[in-house]
Specification:
about 80 residues, about 30% helix, single chain, alpha+beta, 2 helices, about 30% strand
């Protein structure tokens, strides 16, 4: 049975850097999809009190797909 793997990154965007950050996040998404990552989600999340951070979530269809991108990972079935 295959299990999806999620990798999350969090970024704090400082005031006045929104346009530059948006361009950077779109580049991350485009490159991730080129690598064969099945889906990429982006949005805002509150970490702490009134501290918004942008998150980028990379979704792999399986641990093997994750292992191929980052090395050393492999999915196995428990018997």
């Amino acid at each position: 049975m295959s299990k999806r793997v999620f990798v999350n990154y969090y970024f704090e965007v400082k005031y006045g850097q929104g346009t530059k950050a948006s361009k950077y996040f779109e580049e991350i998404k485009a490159e991730a999809l080129k690598l064969g990552i099945s889906d990429v989600h982006m949005g805002l999340v509150e970490i702490g009190t009134n501290s918004l951070s942008t998150y980028v979530s990379l979704i792999f269809e399986s641990a093997d797909a994750f292992g191929r991108q980052w090395g050393g990972g492999s999915e196995y079935a428990v018997k």
